[in-house]
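Much of what follows relies on a compact textual record of a protein's fold. Here is one such record, which you should read through line by line:
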Amino acid sequence: MSSAVSLPVNVQPWLKYAATTVGRDKIYRAVQYFSRFLAWYLLRQGATKETVARFSNLKKTLGLSRKLMRFGKPIEHLENAAKATSVKDEFLRYATIGKQLAYAGYLTFDGLIFIDGSGAYKFKNIKKYNELASKFWLAGIVFGFVSGLYKTRQIQIRRVTAARGLAHSGESEKSNARTELKALAKEQHSVNTQLLQDGLDMLLPSTALGYLNLDDGALGLIGTTTAIMGAKTQWRKVNKA
């Protein structure tokens, strides 16, 4: 009689995470940007050209691979923009539509950059495409950041209303108010995390466009940090944590 062999650790959460394109992309992104940081750091530490080139090539390879993974995603963002037309809050409706359209534009040019980088076809205006991709990327992040600020304001208003419930003499009203305040605190934490992530990510296209002058070391660490933040969010989403 045979019995099933089980691993000493529960790998199901990891399998669920790795089964998602977003989950894998966050891992690749973290490695890509950390490789960017290492190439910058090792160069300044006097490492050999071969060592620096190893991490630079890894960064480029992962960057191109991620572009391939995103190929076709503009359609998804266009669909999300269409769905956003049903959002009741007018400000969030237009902000969400703007964000989704911006990401659709970004990923459209990102796809062209992949085609050029893969050698399948060389575009004469590839520098312009890179610039437009960065502009659309930045616009998408800004729309998301502004949405986060708006949500924070709305949560504050709801928190004031819920806090008034604690002044009621009835225990039922107080209990409902406590539950609402707890839910709002959790929602605000999620919004704050996204605001921080967007605020950091904003620095990447801003530097690519020449608005800022951050070096590869800073950009590498920023990209690694936001990749880890995104990975944690995706992990909680797929594993209901």
The chain has two domains: 14-69+216-241, 72-210. The mean pLDDT is 93.
